Amino acid sequence: MERLTAPRMHILYDHQIFSYQKFGGASRYFAELMNVLDATREAQFTLGVAASPNEYLAQSRFYQGERDTQAGTGPFLRRYARNEWRFRQLARQQPFDVLHATFYDPSVLHSVRGSKLVVTVLDMIPERFPAFFDVTSLYGRFVTRRWIEGKRLLCQRADAIIAISQSTKDDLVSFYGVAPERVTVVHLGNRLGLTAPGAPLAGMPSRYVLFVGTRNTYKNFGPFIEAAAAAVHADPGLEVVCIGGGAFSEEEHALLRQHDLAGRVQQRNVADGDIAACYAHAEVFVFPSLYEGFGIPILEAFSCGCPTLLARASCFPEIAGDAALYFDPQTPGSMAAALTRLLGDAALRDQLRARGRARAAEFTWERTTARTLDIYRALEATP
């Protein structure tokens, strides 16, 4: 008698974050989920994207759409509309077991069509820091305000909610009044540092303090520069390197001049394949943000053997444990004192390198995907 096998679960991912992001933590998260599913074949998935500027999709095996790297509001809105049409077309063509929204546009609700809806809450930054978000310009009214308001609506309607840290879950419950049992914490993963990072990049200082990512608002860049200035002026061989975030603005150049750091701080944009070398050859990585939903750069630094200094805020102690040195972001001078201590204590740096590598090994995309599949399967089993 022929043995019958149950069909694989089929998941539909929408286009939203891949219409927005060229790179970033949110699109990396969803691309990595699909990378693992593509490799393991534990579930079937479809991605509703016709064209995207996203680097992680471009590097994947599963993506068959076009590259669209045009910048500006007009090209973005055209790309978004094209991808929205493609996504809705796919949703109409066949039933899906799960629809996992990649961001918070409430229009995704039109495409649920009997699927179980899963929403991942990546952070609660707009709720904690509303003044940092423009909701009055053309883009702000039609894009930013829409997804901020849509996040609450999608969480209300979702069959399952994923939070990427316990800190994010606590904020979600506090701000939205969501029942805690409706939210499952699934930590993110990391692949950086699995191979040797290679030699230092050309043009990098021999010794430097590292800052990675955007530098706006809650990223706490001004206090970081103030703290770094004390360390740099005390050590003539030390510099500061900022990776990503675009070229320094005139306001940032003025900040550097104010602290007499012109010529001692550089900004560089590097390819994904080169970021490991930036971490591996840094004296210290500093992540001073007032808030993050998870903080993938922490795991990147850990896995590359980079001693790490963190604000004691939001999810950082949850993710880093005892593998980092912390400072109080609300106490002036705390960051500078902690940075000076770490730079001056080689034994402590070695200790944090070992702890960091061990801590990073606990966070893998395979584990993230397995836990996410458990959530999908539990939904599939419910009426």
List keywords for this structure.
single chain, 383 residues, alpha/beta, six-stranded parallel β-sheet, 15 helices, 43% helix, disordered N terminus
Q: What topology emerges from the helices and strands here?
A:
Elements: E1 10-13, H1 16-20, H2 25-40, E2 44-47, E3 51-52, H3 55-59, E4 66-67, H4 73-93, E5 98-101, E6 116-121, H5 125-128, H6 138-157, E7 160-163, H7 166-176, E8 183-185, E9 208-212, H8 221-234, E10 239-243, H9 250-258, E11 265-268, H10 275-280, E12 284-287, H11 296-303, E13 308-311, H12 316-320, E14 325-327, H13 334-343, H14 346-360, H15 365-380
Parallel strand pairs: 1-2, 1-5, 3-4, 5-6, 6-7, 7-8, 9-10, 9-12, 10-11, 12-13, 13-14
Helix pairs in contact: 2-15, 8-13, 11-14
What's a quick, concise take on this entry?
This protein is an alpha/beta fold. 43% of the residues lie in helices and 14% in strands.
* Low-confidence regions: 1-5
What quaternary form is this?
single chain
Query: Which structural class should the secondary elements be placed in?
Result: alpha/beta
Q: Strand order, biggest sheet?
A: 2-1-5-6-7-8
Termini Cα gap: 30 Å
Radius of gyration: 22 Å
The best one-word shape is: globular
Helical amount:
40-55%
Order of helices and strands: EHHEEHEHEEHHEHEEHEHEHEHEHEHHH
How much of the residues is beta strand, in percent? 5-15%
Count of DSSP-assigned helices: 15
Major sheet characteristics: 6 strands, parallel
